[in-house]
Amino acid sequence: MDTIEAIMTRRSTRRFIHKPVERDKLGKIIEAGRYAPSGGNSQTCHFIVVRSKQVLEKLAELAEKGFAQMEITEKTYRSLANSIRMSKKGGYVFHYDPDCLIIVANQKDYGNNIADTACALENMMIAANELGLGSVWINQLKWLNEDKALLEYERALGLKENERVYGALALGYPDTEDGLPCRVPLSRTGNEVTYIDR
Question: Residue 36's closest CA among 106, 105, 116, 111?
């Protein structure tokens, strides 16, 4: 698969089978994230790679508690509102129960923290597609960045005092008939392009 094909056929996976991702594939995906561009080549992303089912369950439990305490307003982003609604209902697992959750943190006072995290996550999603793995960007931990219980737990996992989570990646083998990620591109209905030639 060439680079353009890996980009054009990347789709989000939200259902995974319980099959471990091989260590060499995981290493290649993490390295793809580490080699992403960063502002001034700062390289301040911190990758916390969670493969423990116990830790994944605890993260889901703490996130559900945090979201359940929030209220929805007319200005609440629709995906965040969905997380709040599902948490209030109970049984919400924000990360889709993957084999691996790669949490990407960065310095909280660094101006390019979200941009650098986004570059790293995109690199990892493209690499995962090329390697036959499914992945999906996870926002929920970012929305709970100042939740005290979750922040304390993330620090126990290695998050530094001056860091916050700006994105995460659920990664694993897709629960599909052929075991591969869906690679049928979605048509583009937005993302307008304007050319200025002179």
Answer: 116
| pLDDT tens by residue, 112-137 | 999 999 999 999 999 999 999 999 99
Return the SS3 of 46: strand
Of 147, 128, 118, nearest to 32 (Cα)?
Answer: 128
Query: In one letter, which amino acid is 193?
Result: V
**What is the 3 state secondary structure string of 100-154?**
EEEEEEEECCCCCHHHHHHHHHHHHHHHHHHCCCEEEEECHHHHCCCCHHHHHHH
Instruction: Give the whole-angstrom CA distance, residue 44 versus residue 179.
Output: 34
Mean pLDDT in residue range 43-71: 98
**b/e for 26-47, b at 16 or more Cβ within 10 A?**
beebbebbeebebeeeeebbeb
Q: Please state whether the predicted TM-score (pTM) of the whole model is above 0.90.
A: yes
pLDDT tens readout for residues 79-110: 999 999 999 999 999 999 999 999 999 999 99
Decide which of 3.40.220.10, 3.40.109.10, 1.10.3720.10, 2.30.30.520 is the CATH code for 9-66+95-172. 3.40.109.10
Asked if the model's pLDDT at residue 185 lies above 90, the reply is no
Distance CA 154, CA 134 (A): 24
The domains of the chain are located at 9-66+95-172
- Identity of residue 17: I
